[in-house]
Fold:
Amino acid sequence: IDLDTARQELEEFIPHVKNISDSSIKKMAGRDLTRFKEFKKQGIAVKFGRFTQKENKQIQKNVDEFLALTGIDSAEKLLFTSRYPEDKDTIHRLKTEHHFCEKISEGIPRPWRLIYYRARKMFDPNNYKGRYTDEEKEKLKKYHALHGNDWKKISELMSRSNLSVAMKFSEIKSAINYGPWTKEETRKLMNAVREVMRRKLKAENPNSLDSVDQSNTDVWIDREQLCQPLPWTEIETKVGSRYWRQCKQKWNSILTSKLTRGQQLYRGINGLKAKINLIKRLYETKAEDASEVNWDELTNVIGDVPRAYVQSKFYKLKVSSVPLWKRKTFSEIIDYLYEKKLPELEKKL
Structure:
Protein backbone atom coordinates (compact mmCIF):
# COMPACT_ATOMS: atom_id res chain seq x y z
CA ILE A 1 0.00 0.00 0.00
CA ASP A 2 1.11 3.59 -0.54
CA LEU A 3 2.64 5.71 2.21
CA ASP A 4 -0.43 7.90 2.92
CA THR A 5 -2.74 4.88 3.18
CA ALA A 6 -0.27 3.08 5.45
CA ARG A 7 -0.03 6.11 7.75
CA GLN A 8 -3.81 6.44 7.82
CA GLU A 9 -4.37 2.76 8.63
CA LEU A 10 -1.65 2.70 11.28
CA GLU A 11 -3.17 5.75 13.00
CA GLU A 12 -5.98 3.54 14.30
CA PHE A 13 -3.41 1.59 16.33
CA ILE A 14 -0.68 4.18 16.99
CA PRO A 15 -2.03 7.64 17.97
CA HIS A 16 1.36 9.38 17.57
CA VAL A 17 1.90 7.99 14.04
CA LYS A 18 2.09 11.50 12.52
CA ASN A 19 5.42 12.00 14.31
CA ILE A 20 6.97 8.85 12.78
CA SER A 21 9.30 9.16 9.78
CA ASP A 22 8.28 7.95 6.30
CA SER A 23 10.92 5.20 6.26
CA SER A 24 9.66 3.84 9.61
CA ILE A 25 6.06 3.94 8.35
CA LYS A 26 7.07 1.81 5.33
CA LYS A 27 8.69 -0.77 7.63
CA MET A 28 5.70 -0.80 9.98
CA ALA A 29 3.30 -1.27 7.06
CA GLY A 30 5.18 -4.46 6.18
CA ARG A 31 5.93 -5.80 9.64
CA ASP A 32 3.07 -4.59 11.81
CA LEU A 33 -0.13 -3.65 10.01
CA THR A 34 -1.38 -7.19 9.29
CA ARG A 35 -0.50 -8.25 12.86
CA PHE A 36 -2.31 -5.24 14.34
CA LYS A 37 -5.45 -5.99 12.31
CA GLU A 38 -5.37 -9.60 13.47
CA PHE A 39 -5.05 -8.53 17.11
CA LYS A 40 -7.98 -6.14 16.61
CA LYS A 41 -10.17 -9.04 15.41
CA GLN A 42 -9.30 -10.81 18.67
CA GLY A 43 -10.23 -7.71 20.67
CA ILE A 44 -6.59 -7.10 21.73
CA ALA A 45 -5.25 -3.52 21.78
CA VAL A 46 -1.72 -2.56 20.68
CA LYS A 47 0.46 -1.90 23.74
CA PHE A 48 3.34 0.41 24.63
CA GLY A 49 5.36 1.00 27.80
CA ARG A 50 6.94 -1.57 30.10
CA PHE A 51 6.96 -5.22 28.95
CA THR A 52 5.11 -7.65 31.22
CA GLN A 53 6.54 -10.91 32.55
CA LYS A 54 4.14 -12.78 30.26
CA GLU A 55 5.46 -10.88 27.21
CA ASN A 56 9.07 -11.53 28.23
CA LYS A 57 8.30 -15.26 28.43
CA GLN A 58 6.68 -15.11 24.98
CA ILE A 59 9.81 -13.44 23.55
CA GLN A 60 11.94 -16.16 25.17
CA LYS A 61 9.68 -18.83 23.62
CA ASN A 62 9.76 -17.17 20.17
CA VAL A 63 13.56 -16.92 20.21
CA ASP A 64 14.01 -20.53 21.42
CA GLU A 65 11.67 -21.84 18.71
CA PHE A 66 13.44 -19.85 15.99
CA LEU A 67 16.84 -21.18 17.10
CA ALA A 68 15.48 -24.76 17.05
CA LEU A 69 13.95 -24.18 13.61
CA THR A 70 17.10 -22.76 11.99
CA GLY A 71 19.88 -24.51 13.89
CA ILE A 72 21.51 -21.17 14.82
CA ASP A 73 23.32 -22.07 18.02
CA SER A 74 22.77 -19.00 20.22
CA ALA A 75 20.46 -16.04 20.76
CA GLU A 76 23.50 -13.76 20.67
CA LYS A 77 24.31 -14.91 17.11
CA LEU A 78 20.68 -14.40 16.10
CA LEU A 79 20.29 -10.91 17.57
CA PHE A 80 23.87 -9.59 17.38
CA THR A 81 24.93 -11.07 14.05
CA SER A 82 27.57 -8.39 13.39
CA ARG A 83 29.65 -9.87 16.26
CA TYR A 84 30.08 -13.03 14.17
CA PRO A 85 31.35 -11.89 10.75
CA GLU A 86 32.24 -15.45 9.66
CA ASP A 87 28.61 -16.62 10.14
CA LYS A 88 26.90 -13.41 9.07
CA ASP A 89 25.80 -14.45 5.55
CA THR A 90 24.42 -17.81 6.69
CA ILE A 91 22.48 -16.27 9.59
CA HIS A 92 20.97 -13.55 7.37
CA ARG A 93 19.88 -16.18 4.84
CA LEU A 94 18.24 -18.33 7.54
CA LYS A 95 16.48 -15.29 9.03
CA THR A 96 15.02 -14.40 5.63
CA GLU A 97 14.03 -17.96 4.71
CA HIS A 98 12.25 -18.60 8.01
CA HIS A 99 10.55 -15.19 8.38
CA PHE A 100 12.43 -13.92 11.42
CA CYS A 101 10.29 -10.75 11.77
CA GLU A 102 7.01 -12.67 11.97
CA LYS A 103 8.33 -15.39 14.26
CA ILE A 104 10.02 -13.12 16.81
CA SER A 105 6.85 -11.00 17.27
CA GLU A 106 4.34 -13.85 17.40
CA GLY A 107 1.67 -13.40 20.07
CA ILE A 108 2.86 -9.95 21.22
CA PRO A 109 0.60 -6.93 20.41
CA ARG A 110 3.38 -4.36 20.07
CA PRO A 111 5.29 -2.75 17.20
CA TRP A 112 7.94 -5.15 15.86
CA ARG A 113 10.77 -2.70 16.47
CA LEU A 114 10.01 -2.53 20.22
CA ILE A 115 9.86 -6.34 20.45
CA TYR A 116 13.20 -6.62 18.65
CA TYR A 117 14.86 -4.07 20.97
CA ARG A 118 13.46 -5.85 24.01
CA ALA A 119 14.79 -9.20 22.75
CA ARG A 120 18.24 -7.66 22.21
CA LYS A 121 18.22 -6.29 25.75
CA MET A 122 17.16 -9.66 27.19
CA PHE A 123 19.72 -11.75 25.32
CA ASP A 124 22.76 -9.47 25.25
CA PRO A 125 25.39 -11.17 27.45
CA ASN A 126 27.15 -7.80 27.70
CA ASN A 127 24.14 -6.37 29.50
CA TYR A 128 24.57 -8.13 32.83
CA LYS A 129 28.21 -7.74 33.82
CA GLY A 130 27.74 -6.04 37.16
CA ARG A 131 29.44 -2.91 38.42
CA TYR A 132 32.08 -1.06 36.42
CA THR A 133 35.61 -1.25 37.83
CA ASP A 134 37.69 1.92 38.17
CA GLU A 135 39.78 0.67 35.24
CA GLU A 136 36.67 0.31 33.07
CA LYS A 137 35.52 3.82 33.96
CA GLU A 138 38.88 5.23 32.86
CA LYS A 139 38.67 3.25 29.61
CA LEU A 140 35.16 4.55 29.01
CA LYS A 141 36.33 8.16 29.40
CA LYS A 142 39.23 7.50 27.01
CA TYR A 143 37.02 5.83 24.37
CA HIS A 144 34.48 8.64 24.57
CA ALA A 145 37.25 11.20 23.99
CA LEU A 146 38.23 9.21 20.85
CA HIS A 147 34.81 8.24 19.47
CA GLY A 148 32.32 10.75 20.92
CA ASN A 149 28.78 9.37 21.30
CA ASP A 150 29.36 6.39 19.01
CA TRP A 151 28.02 4.02 21.68
CA LYS A 152 27.95 1.06 19.32
CA LYS A 153 31.70 1.35 18.74
CA ILE A 154 32.43 1.96 22.43
CA SER A 155 30.22 -0.97 23.49
CA GLU A 156 32.19 -3.30 21.20
CA LEU A 157 35.51 -2.06 22.62
CA MET A 158 34.31 -2.54 26.21
CA SER A 159 32.17 -5.68 25.73
CA ARG A 160 29.25 -3.91 27.37
CA SER A 161 25.84 -3.10 25.86
CA ASN A 162 25.18 0.20 24.06
CA LEU A 163 22.72 1.28 26.72
CA SER A 164 25.05 0.35 29.56
CA VAL A 165 28.03 2.41 28.30
CA ALA A 166 25.84 5.41 27.39
CA MET A 167 24.19 5.51 30.81
CA LYS A 168 27.43 4.89 32.71
CA PHE A 169 29.18 7.73 30.86
CA SER A 170 26.24 10.01 31.64
CA GLU A 171 26.70 9.14 35.31
CA ILE A 172 30.50 9.65 35.25
CA LYS A 173 30.49 13.03 33.54
CA SER A 174 27.92 14.60 35.88
CA ALA A 175 28.99 16.61 38.90
CA ILE A 176 27.22 14.15 41.14
CA ASN A 177 25.76 15.11 44.48
CA TYR A 178 24.90 12.06 46.62
CA GLY A 179 23.45 13.98 49.57
CA PRO A 180 19.82 14.98 50.25
CA TRP A 181 18.11 16.97 47.49
CA THR A 182 18.14 20.73 48.05
CA LYS A 183 15.08 22.89 47.33
CA GLU A 184 16.94 24.40 44.36
CA GLU A 185 17.70 20.97 42.87
CA THR A 186 14.07 19.88 43.31
CA ARG A 187 12.88 23.08 41.62
CA LYS A 188 15.24 22.45 38.68
CA LEU A 189 13.99 18.88 38.39
CA MET A 190 10.32 19.90 38.34
CA ASN A 191 11.01 22.67 35.82
CA ALA A 192 12.88 20.19 33.60
CA VAL A 193 10.02 17.66 33.74
CA ARG A 194 7.51 20.42 33.01
CA GLU A 195 9.54 21.55 30.00
CA VAL A 196 9.88 18.10 28.42
CA MET A 197 6.20 17.30 29.05
CA ARG A 198 5.11 20.52 27.36
CA ARG A 199 7.32 19.72 24.37
CA LYS A 200 5.98 16.17 24.22
CA LEU A 201 2.37 17.36 24.25
CA LYS A 202 3.14 20.01 21.64
CA ALA A 203 4.63 17.34 19.34
CA GLU A 204 1.57 15.11 19.78
CA ASN A 205 -0.88 17.95 19.16
CA PRO A 206 0.68 21.19 17.83
CA ASN A 207 -2.52 23.20 18.39
CA SER A 208 -3.17 22.04 21.93
CA LEU A 209 -0.72 24.39 23.63
CA ASP A 210 -1.17 27.54 21.54
CA SER A 211 -3.47 29.23 24.04
CA VAL A 212 -1.34 27.99 26.93
CA ASP A 213 1.85 29.37 25.37
CA GLN A 214 0.20 32.74 24.87
CA SER A 215 -1.18 32.93 28.41
CA ASN A 216 2.08 31.70 29.99
CA THR A 217 0.22 29.23 32.24
CA ASP A 218 0.83 25.51 32.70
CA VAL A 219 -1.04 22.70 31.04
CA TRP A 220 -2.45 19.93 33.19
CA ILE A 221 -1.33 16.41 32.51
CA ASP A 222 -3.02 13.21 33.63
CA ARG A 223 -1.29 10.80 36.01
CA GLU A 224 -0.74 8.17 33.30
CA GLN A 225 1.31 10.59 31.18
CA LEU A 226 3.39 11.66 34.19
CA CYS A 227 4.27 8.01 34.85
CA GLN A 228 5.40 7.38 31.25
CA PRO A 229 9.15 7.13 30.48
CA LEU A 230 10.79 10.56 30.20
CA PRO A 231 14.10 11.57 28.54
CA TRP A 232 16.09 11.25 31.76
CA THR A 233 19.53 12.01 30.32
CA GLU A 234 18.16 15.34 29.05
CA ILE A 235 16.56 16.05 32.43
CA GLU A 236 19.88 15.16 34.10
CA THR A 237 21.61 17.85 32.00
CA LYS A 238 19.03 20.46 33.02
CA VAL A 239 19.34 19.62 36.73
CA GLY A 240 23.14 19.64 36.51
CA SER A 241 24.07 18.15 39.87
CA ARG A 242 22.44 14.70 39.71
CA TYR A 243 22.71 11.84 37.27
CA TRP A 244 19.68 10.48 35.40
CA ARG A 245 18.85 7.61 37.74
CA GLN A 246 18.74 9.94 40.76
CA CYS A 247 16.45 12.31 38.84
CA LYS A 248 14.11 9.46 37.93
CA GLN A 249 13.96 8.15 41.51
CA LYS A 250 13.34 11.63 42.92
CA TRP A 251 10.56 12.34 40.42
CA ASN A 252 8.85 9.05 41.25
CA SER A 253 9.08 9.83 44.96
CA ILE A 254 7.56 13.30 44.38
CA LEU A 255 4.63 11.77 42.47
CA THR A 256 4.08 9.04 45.05
CA SER A 257 4.26 11.46 47.95
CA LYS A 258 1.81 13.93 46.44
CA LEU A 259 -0.70 11.31 45.34
CA THR A 260 -0.55 9.49 48.69
CA ARG A 261 -0.97 12.75 50.58
CA GLY A 262 -3.99 13.54 48.43
CA GLN A 263 -5.61 10.22 49.30
CA GLN A 264 -5.09 10.89 53.02
CA LEU A 265 -6.42 14.45 52.76
CA TYR A 266 -9.51 13.39 50.84
CA ARG A 267 -10.99 11.01 53.43
CA GLY A 268 -13.87 11.47 55.89
CA ILE A 269 -14.82 14.99 56.95
CA ASN A 270 -11.85 16.43 55.05
CA GLY A 271 -13.16 14.75 51.93
CA LEU A 272 -16.59 16.37 52.36
CA LYS A 273 -14.99 19.78 52.92
CA ALA A 274 -12.79 19.32 49.86
CA LYS A 275 -15.79 18.50 47.64
CA ILE A 276 -17.73 21.50 48.99
CA ASN A 277 -14.80 23.88 48.47
CA LEU A 278 -14.08 22.46 45.02
CA ILE A 279 -17.67 23.04 43.84
CA LYS A 280 -17.71 26.57 45.29
CA ARG A 281 -14.36 27.51 43.73
CA LEU A 282 -15.34 26.12 40.33
CA TYR A 283 -18.64 28.02 40.46
CA GLU A 284 -16.81 31.24 41.31
CA THR A 285 -14.53 30.93 38.25
CA LYS A 286 -17.57 31.34 35.93
CA ALA A 287 -15.63 29.21 33.42
CA GLU A 288 -17.48 28.06 30.32
CA ASP A 289 -15.01 25.26 29.63
CA ALA A 290 -12.55 23.07 31.59
CA SER A 291 -9.65 24.60 29.64
CA GLU A 292 -10.43 28.00 31.21
CA VAL A 293 -9.90 26.67 34.75
CA ASN A 294 -6.53 27.16 36.43
CA TRP A 295 -6.38 23.75 38.11
CA ASP A 296 -3.07 24.61 39.78
CA GLU A 297 -4.82 27.25 41.89
CA LEU A 298 -7.46 24.71 42.88
CA THR A 299 -4.94 22.22 44.30
CA ASN A 300 -4.97 23.97 47.69
CA VAL A 301 -8.65 23.02 48.02
CA ILE A 302 -7.38 19.53 48.87
CA GLY A 303 -3.73 20.14 49.78
CA ASP A 304 -0.31 19.64 48.28
CA VAL A 305 -1.41 17.38 45.40
CA PRO A 306 -0.87 17.38 41.63
CA ARG A 307 -3.46 19.19 39.52
CA ALA A 308 -4.32 15.83 37.93
CA TYR A 309 -5.51 14.63 41.34
CA VAL A 310 -7.95 17.55 41.62
CA GLN A 311 -9.16 16.92 38.07
CA SER A 312 -9.76 13.24 38.84
CA LYS A 313 -11.81 14.18 41.92
CA PHE A 314 -13.90 16.60 39.85
CA TYR A 315 -14.43 13.87 37.24
CA LYS A 316 -15.67 11.38 39.87
CA LEU A 317 -17.91 14.05 41.37
CA LYS A 318 -19.67 14.86 38.11
CA VAL A 319 -19.99 11.19 37.06
CA SER A 320 -21.51 10.16 40.41
CA SER A 321 -23.67 13.26 40.97
CA VAL A 322 -24.79 14.77 37.65
CA PRO A 323 -27.42 12.83 35.65
CA LEU A 324 -26.76 12.71 31.88
CA TRP A 325 -23.57 14.70 32.43
CA LYS A 326 -22.25 13.79 28.99
CA ARG A 327 -25.03 15.80 27.39
CA LYS A 328 -24.36 18.89 29.50
CA THR A 329 -21.85 21.67 28.93
CA PHE A 330 -19.10 22.31 31.47
CA SER A 331 -20.92 25.33 32.92
CA GLU A 332 -24.21 23.38 33.17
CA ILE A 333 -22.41 20.65 35.12
CA ILE A 334 -20.96 23.21 37.53
CA ASP A 335 -24.37 24.89 37.97
CA TYR A 336 -25.99 21.53 38.73
CA LEU A 337 -23.31 20.65 41.30
CA TYR A 338 -23.67 24.09 42.93
CA GLU A 339 -27.47 24.10 43.03
CA LYS A 340 -28.22 20.41 43.75
CA LYS A 341 -25.16 18.61 45.12
CA LEU A 342 -23.67 21.36 47.27
CA PRO A 343 -26.68 21.64 49.67
CA GLU A 344 -26.63 17.83 50.12
CA LEU A 345 -22.93 17.84 50.99
CA GLU A 346 -23.25 20.79 53.39
CA LYS A 347 -26.13 19.04 55.17
CA LYS A 348 -24.07 15.84 55.43
CA LEU A 349 -21.11 17.76 56.80
About this structure: The radius of gyration is 26 Å. Confidence is low (pLDDT under 50) at residues 209-219. The CA atoms of residues 36 and 262 lie 39 Å apart. The first helix runs from residue 3 to 11.
